[in-house]
Amino acid sequence: MQPKSTFFLLLCGLLLSGCAGAAGRDLKPAHTRPREGMLGVVFQNGVECLGQEAQPRPGEALYVSPAGSDENPGTRDAPLGTLASALCNLRPGQTLYLLPGVYTESVLLGDFGSADAPITLSGIIEDGRWPVLEGENQRTVGLALVESRNFVIENIVFRNYTDEGLLALLVNELTIRNCRLLDNGRASTDPDADGEGFGLNLVGVQNARVEDNRLIGNGPDRQRWLNYTLGTGINTYELFDAIIRGNLITGTTGGGILIENGGNVLVENNFIAYSELDANGDYWDGGIWVDGSYNVTLRDNTIRQNHGPGIVISDEDLQYPQTSYGIVVRNNIVSSNLTAIFVWNYGLCPPPGEALQLAENDFNRNQQPPW
After folding, report:
1. Is residue 282 over pLDDT 60?
2. Considering the entire predicted model, what is its pTM?
């Protein structure tokens, strides 16, 4: 799970004022070793920039392509050449279209966006070719949003980043849809993460929609796997008022979806399979894990052939009845896992009805009985 200390360490490091911004400086990454940047995020081989220092280009639509040039105006016929130049100068209401090709970049944005209009990053898919953000197992994160709001991210591939493909930290109003997050989190460089790696990592996020994405092969590499280091396809900590819907999550070294210390979250119509950590058969490598959260509904999900439990419900920090309540598990198909559902740390089994409600689920062919 997301270590409890990570969120507060990151929060304490968020110093978004009085820092050198992106405007008027070299946008190439200046460091090759992990370091904590001005946004409080440990990263390597990336570019940081602040919304207050953006120099927006005119127009509602901009284009970027690996074959373009940052000297171009950013039109479809004359696109920009780097994500850093394009992203670091966006303003609310603009859409950045990513043309197909491979972008070997990492960009961290701090204090971007407003409630008035979204910033949209939209990939253009042509003849089966996608825009691909490529980490080459050397960059920490494809895109990080820190203390920002009102973003839409769609139709983009995030691949081979060491810590996570996409990070949102202290973000309000976020939509991520129809993206591909592949083979991320193999070799985390953040000391606070204890080696854990993720496809998508949402920390302190409110009003989010994560829909119709594919997350395949995310989590730590083989050596960390042997040390039982956890990975997660969609990792969340303090996620509130959110929907996680219609995602396909397979081949994770660890678990499919984690909802930790969150509230008012709907998880529905997801397909989660082949999570495996081989951690002596414990609860780390299952389908969906809900811990220390309230008003979370899991419904209409298909969870099968995971090395651990299909569903885990826990109160790890003994917070019930202040939280760890209102968990509804309804109409899920949970098949061929270690066990269908594993519930722990409530002091009694099954837990009180106000903590957990089960209804109309299809639990079949799991190796062990529930609980």
Report:
1. no
2. 0.90
Tally Cβ neighbours within 10 Å of residue 278: 13
Give CA–CA dist 43/135, Å, rounded: 12
Cα distance between residue 81 and residue 65, in whole Å? 5
Alpha helix stretches (DSSP H) within 191-348: 222-226
Please tell me the least confidently modeled range out of 22-36, 83-97, 196-210, 353-367: 22-36
N- to C-terminal Cα separation, the chain: 20
Phi, psi of 229 (to 5 degrees): -75, 135
Q: Among all chains, which residue has been given the structure tokens 């973003």?
A: 151
The answer to whether 300 touches 269, Cβ cutoff 8 Å, is yes
Which tokens is 149 given?
């709001």
Q: How far apart are CA 74 and CA 67, in angstroms?
A: 12
In whole angstroms, give the CA distance from residue 47 to residue 106. Answer: 6
Burial of residue 29 (CB within 10 Å: 0-12, 13-18, 19+) is: middle
Q: Cα 248 to the chain's mean position, in Å?
A: 14
* Run of H or E residues at 54: none
For 152-197, write each residue's pLDDT tens digit.
999 999 999 999 999 999 999 999 999 999 999 988 877 776 778 9
Instruction: Report which of 284, 288, 332, 290 is spatially closest to residue 308, judged by C-alpha positions.
Output: 284
Of 34-38, 75-79, 328-332, least confident by mean pLDDT is 34-38
Q: Using CA atoms, how far apart are residues 256 and 93, in angstroms rounded to an integer?
A: 33
Task: Give the residue among 150, 151, 152, 153 at the shortest CA–CA distance from 142.
Answer: 153
CA distance 341 to 270: 16
Instruction: Quote the DSSP letter at residue 53.
Output: G
Helix (H) or strand (E) holding 216: strand 214-216
- Annotate 268-311 with DSSP letters as a single string: ES-EEE-----STT-TTSSSEEEES-EEEEEES-EEES-SS-SE
Q: What are phi and psi of 158, to 5 degrees?
A: -115, 120
- Looking at 157-300, list the stretches that DSSP marks H as alpha helix, in order from N- to C-terminal side: 222-226
